[in-house]
Amino acid sequence: MKEVEIEHIEDERETPLKKIIIGIVGIFLIGLMLSYTIYSNGNEDILLGLIGSSTIENNIIELNGLTIQIRADKYLEIVDQYIGNEGNEIKVCLMGNRDNGKINIEDLYYPKIISQSYSHIETTGCPKETIISLHSHPNRRCMPSSQDIRSFELLKQQNPNVLVAIMCEPLRFYFYS
User: Fold this and answer.
1) Is the CA virtual torsion 70, 72, 73, 79 positive or negative?
2) DSSP run (H or E) holding 53
3) What is the pLDDT of residues 38-67, one digit of tens each?
4) Which residues share a beta bridge with 63?
5) Does residue 76 come out as left (phi exceeding 0), alpha (psi in the -120 to 50 range) or beta?
């Protein structure tokens, strides 16, 4: 009879420590991938803008104790301008009245455009009685630029009660005052 040599193979079992290390490394890699996805190409502005912006429903925007109601035909006019100027920013001055915690937008004023592009618009400005100065940004880019902040500071000197809105989708607005 021939002897058959049998190799002894040890069963390599995963220890709890090994599982913990693999889990930590896996979570680290997922976090690394997510941070790269979010923070590359300006995506953090999109995320922050979506978090800080408001949506309109039935022509009404609820904003920290303030209700903004835009007349239906005027809202549709703004959306038409936004869609019709895709690829260029738009500027619209929203007119109406403000009473306690409610703003009613009844009319629109379009200032004369001096220059207009994908990420910039220069106009003659809004009238002093403007309630909301609105301009658009490219899709989902809701955050104000440094130029927006400088323009806002000048606008506040003219009208301390004015709100500024950035339209970054047909149903999404970012407000600051």
Assistant:
1) positive
2) none
3) 556 666 666 777 777 889 999 999 988 899
4) 66
5) alpha
Alpha helices per DSSP H over 85-158? 146-158
Indicate the domain borders of the chain. Answer: 12-52, 54-176
Note whether 86 and 96 are within 8 A (CB): no
Question: How far is 44 from 33, CA to CA, in rounded Å?
Answer: 14
| Coil/strand/helix, residue 157 | helix
CA-closest candidate to residue 78, choices 95, 90, 61: 90
Q: Are 62 and 103 in contact (CB under 8 A)?
A: no
d(CA 144, CA 142): 7
May I ask the CATH class of domain 54-176? alpha beta
For 118-158, what is each residue's pLDDT tens digit? 888 888 889 989 999 999 988 888 888 888 888 888 888 88
CB half-sphere exposure, 165, CA atoms < 13 A: 25
Compute CA 93 distance to the chain's CA centroid, rounded to the nearest angstrom: 20
